[in-house]
Amino acid sequence: MSRALTLMRVFFLRDLAIDMSYKVSIAIEIVDVLIGAAGFFYLSRVIGDRHPAGYDAFGFILVGVAGNSAMTTALACFAQAVKADQNAGTLKPLLVSPLPPGAMVALSATYPLIRSATSAVAYLVAGALLFGLTGRVNVMASLVLLAMALGAFAAIGFLSAAFTLVVKRGDPLLWLFGVVSWLLGGVFFPVETLPAFLQQVARLLPITYALDGLRATLLGGAGLAAVRPQLIVLGTMAAIGLPLSAALVSAATSYGKRAGTLGHS
Amino acid sequence: MSLPAISIRDLTRTFGGRTILRGITLNVDRGETLVVRGKNGSGKTTLLEILATLLHPSSGTVTVLGHDVVAAGRAVRSAIGYAPSATQSFYPRLNGRQNLELFAAAYGVEPSALRRRVATLLDRIGLAGAARERVERYSDGMRARLSIARALLTDAPVLLLDEPMKSLDAQGRESARELIARCGRGSRTALWVTHDDAEAQSLATRIATLEDGVLR
Fold first, then answer.
1. For residue B172, is it within any domain?
2. Full-model pTM
3. Cβ contact (<8 Å) for A90 and B107?
4. CATH number, residue B118
């Protein structure tokens, strides 16, 4: 097994083992998904026969919620990983490794990102099996789009890890970004229902493109060619944002070494 | 003449307005075990963290095997094994084996040798029987032994040990001493800090004393 795969495996198994050590963690997540799917099903019945953006209302909301859930995890997991290592006292022993700090933070996000993608899929499966959600799913296009979307979200989450390394607290800008994305990104209602100037703001948010694309591939059966515009925007955001954010994590680590605050929690 | 394993020139480190290390100059030759003794707060851990690239010097130069700790931090990290002073430096909900496997992968142990290396070290430090127990159930002494094992994972040529035996009983100290000696006899350089004079006398090929940030 190559070194990179071994690293991903041990970091993934670390977080899986920690997660599994809390016996009710998975059970709570399953209950959360089931109750969430049921709630959104009955909410969609209030909406009636309207078809937001041309989709069935239940499917529209469920994809929105699943995408938002994946985004929230991707935004928060990097900073949470840094904070957890600060609290456990494991940050310094990890930083003594030859791994670049950016790689160490990225590896720590392997498990949460996979778990959040699984959770998003669980929402859709619960919707289909229990509440009659129907749609034409293009699996390949959906997976590619989800990967691109997670890359774009992760670029912003990485920035938050740099912030946490410096100030030891959660990033208020990240919270604001999450709330604005939830409100303007088309999670519960189409972006087109917003005033024109807010639609312009929505076009700056990765979740807008992620949900546009995911609804098309998961509910409308669209292929890769049909969601190329969304893939290009999300891919560009990830390609620019990830290296920039990794560089900022390195800069934040250097700052911590000068200031002597790396191990503080 | 070969380069010293560790070279420190006029090192000063301040935090805010407080000077912790003042103008330290020191060479440690290859194969030497230098024990730096000093009271709590004398600057021992700060010195070790600078060598481990966890802190930058405020002024002065520090090299390990010829690599500058600031400009070539990655090369330095590849050359060191480090045991920090805190016993809380493992994932408490993972077992001893899982902890060591994670750090072994991060420190660059070959994937094919990783499990064998971890099993060997756990056996040598007397934790083979507790390898599958969560670290949160380990005593301070067991954690200290695990920390020594972590420092030895890569056969690094330079060991930096921050009071690694302070939580060990007499028997544990003896086996830790033997383990470290056996793993690097003759070739490995060790910089060991302690506040225990007897420990310093029993370990060192040379002893230095740090007092209020000044080396004597």
1. yes
2. 0.88
3. no
4. 3.40.50.300
